[in-house]
Amino acid sequence: EPEVTQTPSHQVTQMGQEVILRCVPISNHLYFYWYRQILGQKVEFLVSFYNNEISEKSEIFDDQFSVERPDGSNFTLKIRSTKLEDSAMYFCASRASGITGELFFGEGSRLTVL
Amino acid sequence: GENVEQHPSTLSVQEGDSAVIKCTYSDSASNYFPWYKQELGKRPQLIIDIRSNVGEKKDQRIAVTLNKTAKHFSLHITETQPEDSAVYFCAASINHGQNFVFGPGTRLSVLP
Predict the structure, then answer these.
(1) Which of A30, A35, B2, B101 is the least buried, fewest Cβ under 10 Å from its Cβ?
(2) pLDDT tens sequence across A30-50
(3) Subunit contact B43:A43, Cβ cutoff 8 A
């Protein structure tokens, strides 16, 4: 069964450093998402991406965040200057179309900012 | 924007009993309501969903009901089993899933 894959599974970084989280969505999917889950809390929407551009973003997704689909398969989330409060599990997700609803999540990338 | 609330935050039931988790949403334009199950340390996975043109949907031991007027929807799990133990998240979206707003989650524990 096709899966969304994410790397790294866990990254530890110093505050102020740049981090790139990588995702490979399911190959025929058109909509891509990043979500964040702080330990023990709910899944929070960051950004959605369609047709090579951001379609929607949340208040969390400020200027220190950016997304890119550099090569038609990878979908990356960059955090320019990490803060302690960026420590969370980051989930990438993808969806086949705008009508069918199922969102497929990756296994997540745990980011720890020291 | 949309706000989704979920109750209870934790729920313990005896194996074989039923479990009910309730969610409310604020935006009457929301039209798609999925439920996700997240086992410890794993990714959320869709277990059932319902669209706004349907009032109830059932899949084996799991059912979801939707009351559009009251803006609430519920997950019902019958004959619970230990493997049902997980965190369950409801979500609401507009445009059949363009963006999902998740509830805060319910930790379900099924006691043997």
Answers:
(1) A30
(2) 899 999 999 888 899 999 998
(3) no
